[in-house]
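ok trying this again, last paste got cut off
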Amino acid sequence: MTTLYVDADACPVKSEVERVATRLDIPVVLVCNGGLRPSRNPLVSLRIVAEGPDVADKWIAEHCGPGDVVITADIPLADRCLKAGSHVLQHDGQILNQSNIGGRLATRDLMQDIRAADPFHQGGGRSFSQADRSRFLQALDRLARLALKQQ
């Protein structure tokens, strides 16, 4: 059965995920370290994991599989989920797959090295826009429908 897994800490599109999941009747698991209110929607469950680095990521990677959709901005988590056979979508509507994850990992590692060498180099990302939200909704709808067909 297709499930939508959301790396929910600091996720700006939780309500959009719930909207698509409700329309398509797909269960959602919001995974976080706490601080989120449970949804009243019976399709949405909240999984609170222990505090610590990457605990939520590890939980998602261990539970996702073929036919699932994972929503995350975490590139190493995305890589693990793709290897498990899941579809992966970033908050801005970018679909990650086997053909583009390698470049994303390399860029992430390069930027991490640059920041480590120069602590004053802070790569400020662009702000989350309404266009990102719209692109996300369209991409999630496409991926969720594709995942349902693959069941």
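PB: full thing came through this time. The CA atoms of residues 27 and 43 lie 5 Å apart.
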